[in-house]
Protein: Phosphoribosylglycinamide formyltransferase
Organism: Demequina litorisediminis
Amino acid sequence: MTNRHAPARLVVLASGAGSTMSAVLDATADAAYGAAIVAVITDKAGVGALDIAADAGIPSAVVSPRDFADRAAWDLALADAIAAHEPDLVLCLGFMRIIGAPTLDRWGGRLVNTHPALLPSFPGAHGVRDALAHGVRVTGCTVMLVDAGVDTGPILAQATVEVWDDDTESSLHERIKIAERALVTETVGRMAREGWTVDGRRARIGA
């Protein structure tokens, strides 16, 4: 992808408390960050991400699968909700839904996701548990572009987290979340300011 004019327009997709979104939002308070969150879209009502959006005066919408006849209708509605805000980047920050073709077709290469493991190791919904069960001494988090697979898109950035002998899934995940918030914030800011390119499996930020 080529450089975007600053500030880059960010639409956030979320399903939960919105802690990573909050970290990005805090960073956007500095004009030098080069991006602004222009909308928050969730797949359920009553989640913390919506409260954060309301407190910040950011437009939000709930696009719940329960409100649509089938998955295809929901996929199209989600894509339309995103399109209404003309984003430069779409950030999946704790969004617990697989992105469908209507959204991938419109924003392929501009959809950013995170995963609490060092991909391609331990993809899927239980990356922290699987890494711990495997006995690795180092795990971490990955920021990547979304493709049609599950945690298979080109990798933008990674950060490592040491596994401690007394770690539980919960304790390890909490430390990964800290690293993840910092990595997402840094990566998105760099993408907004410097642009990015994708060549097959390889994604590169900057010229």
